[in-house]
Specification:
single chain; about 260 residues; alpha/beta; seven-stranded parallel β-sheet; two-stranded antiparallel sheet; globular
Length: about 260
């Protein structure tokens, strides 16, 4: 699919992987709708990038609000060709810790944002992508979702995060098959340890230790590297129904102390 003159929406687009993706798409000539809960960052980024970008504040967990915002985006852009789901949250908590048994709300909050939020966006936009005129290869649109290597290499305390990302992995082929006759592709990127605000909540010594575990290059991933893969997925029509690890060869072990 051609990126120039395409219409895209990026959730979590005000920072981190989403922001890098917004910048990359705009640089290639796309119009982009940024969806994020951080109004200040979202409006600032849209103001910086100019007329090709619109910002829409939204919590992707609320399916009614997702429907309302997608309708506004369609009114502004006319249609959508690419939906990139980067909105997410995380956290590491043991089921039974020093303060007792973890509240169930911890699990449901992470799953709601990461998994349900991704599904809400797909549910709300699929009809629009289906209405697009197919290109010469019969393609009408593409979804790029954000999983994590934690779907396979989950660490202690990541039960909710791993479950939420594992759900995204499990949806990928299923949705690719469902949308195949409509000319819509579905792909998932599985980032390793990336230099994002979510990971940077950890102390520097933890970040340094994580970076040393990456075979090559031995460092954190950078958001533009994620964005570069998004662009390639959009352009390459034979990528479909697959999950791509983007992790420098990292395989997280058990790490018993």
């Amino acid at each position: 699919m051609e990126i120039k003159d395409s219409k895209a929406v990026v959730t979590g687009g005000a920072s981190g992987l989403g922001e890098a993706t917004v910048r990359a798409l705009v640089a290639e000539g796309a119009q982009v709708a940024i969806i994020d809960m951080d109004r200040d960052k979202g409006e600032a980024l849209a103001g910086e990038l100019g007329a090709a970008v619109r910002f829409f504040p939204l919590n992707v967990v609320d399916h009614n609000e997702v429907d309302n915002v997608i309708q506004k985006i369609l009114e502004a852009f006319g249609t959508l060709h690419a939906v990139i789901n980067c909105a997410g949250t995380g956290g590491s908590v043991r089921i039974v810790g020093k303060e007792g048994v973890v509240p169930v709300e911890w699990f449901t909050r992470i799953v709601d944002v990461n998994l349900l939020g991704t599904f809400n966006m797909i549910r709300s936009t699929a009809s629009s992508l289906m209405r697009n005129e197919p290109n010469p290869q019969g393609e009408r649109g593409v979804y790029v979702n954000t999983g994590s290597i934690a779907a396979f290499d989950g660490q202690v305390g990541q039960a909710a995060y791993s479950a939420s990302k594992g759900g995204i992995v499990s949806m990928t082929l299923t949705l690719a098959r469902e949308f195949a006759d409509n000319g819509i592709r579905v792909m998932t990127i599985l980032p390793g340890i990336f230099n994002t605000p979510l990971l940077n909540r950890n102390p520097q010594k933890v970040l340094d230790r994580l970076a040393r575990q990456v075979p090559f290059p031995p460092r954190l991933g950078e958001p533009p590297e994620f964005a570069s893969l998004v662009l390639h997925i959009i352009r390459n029509p034979y990528l479909n129904g697959e999950c791509i690890r983007l992790d420098g060869g990292l395989r997280m072990g058990f790490g018993r102390k």
